[in-house]
Specification:
Helix content is about 60%, strand content about 5%. It contains seven helices and seven strands, in the order H-H-E-E-H-H-H-E-E-E-E-E-H-H. The longest helix has about 35 residues. The chain is globular and about 45 Å long.
């Protein structure tokens, strides 16, 4: 939900250029920190998890115009260092596919990196509070809190940009003029009121930060629950079949081979 779909030419250069510079610096630092791990062990997992995020971010839940990121799952599996690298890789590919402009690639890298690292940290916190036997609960709570936080960061970013074109967003089945949900399968016959008092200009809603926030929180809260359930199932399954991926991590010094690589061979 925190992925920025703003095209080139919308955000001012004083906003997106620092994003690029900071993102490149973080990728460089993360790469240096990750060098302590065996390349043979970290590259395959980095590639697989990056591909997982790409598939998730390219698949939209149509009625609510939401695509899952699976960033919490990815952050838990990769750890903070590799998360930054994976976020940059994913954002480069998505920018080439038109999911946001090239100029916002740096900001997107920072946003997704934050989501992955925060998800990793919150997962560890809630596992500590709930115990390892409640991995699914820890994952679900961490996912909702993480997505709510990064969505708020996205709203703040749009506010800094001044709203306007930056506040435009695909709203799926949500009518931005009335802030009501329409059933996408019945030609708009069935509606559930969500908000009222829409500002209009010539019959169309005026793009504003307040309206943008209302839309992303309304649609996002549904998506957060869906993503929390999916993420909880994925990490619960991994905990059952390959627990070392969760509790040792790809940069763990004591691991001499990949989890599941019992013969010491790929």
């Amino acid at each position: 939900m925190s992925h920025i779909h703003i095209p080139d030419g919308v955000l001012p250069i004083w906003l997106w250029l620092p994003g690029w510079l900071i993102a490149l610096a973080l990728v460089f630092v993360a790469g240096r920190l990750a060098e302590r791990a065996d390349v043979r062990r970290k590259v395959p997992l980095l590639a697989v998890v990056s591909a997982l995020m790409l598939v998730a971010m390219s698949s939209e839940i149509v009625p609510i115009a939401y695509h899952m990121n699976l960033t919490v799952v990815s952050g838990v599996l990769l750890g903070p260092e590799l998360s930054v690298i994976a976020a940059f890789i994913v954002q480069v590919v998505l920018a080439m596919l038109g999911h946001g402009g090239v100029t916002v690639l740096g900001l997107n890298t920072l946003m997704i990196s934050t989501e992955m690292v925060l998800g990793w940290a919150l997962f560890r916190v809630f596992v500590g509070l709930l115990s390892r036997r409640r991995v699914r609960w820890a994952t679900a709570i961490a996912t909702v809190l993480t997505l709510a936080t990064t969505t708020t960061l996205l709203v703040v970013l749009v506010a800094i940009a001044g709203g306007g074109a930056a506040a435009a967003r695909d709203t799926g089945a949500l009518d931005p003029a009335t802030l009501t949900f329409a059933n996408p399968f019945s030609g708009g016959i069935f509606h559930v009121g969500l908000f009222s008092g829409a500002e209009k200009s010539g019959g169309a809603p005026v793009p504003s930060v307040a309206r943008f926030a209302a839309v992303v929180y309304a649609l996002g809260s549904i998506g957060w629950v869906i993503e929390a359930l999916v993420s909880a199932w994925i990490l619960g399954y991994i905990d059952r079949v390959r627990p070392a991926l969760l509790w040792e991590g790809p940069l763990h010094e004591g691991a001499h081979h990949l989890p599941g690589d019992e013969m010491g061979q790929l």
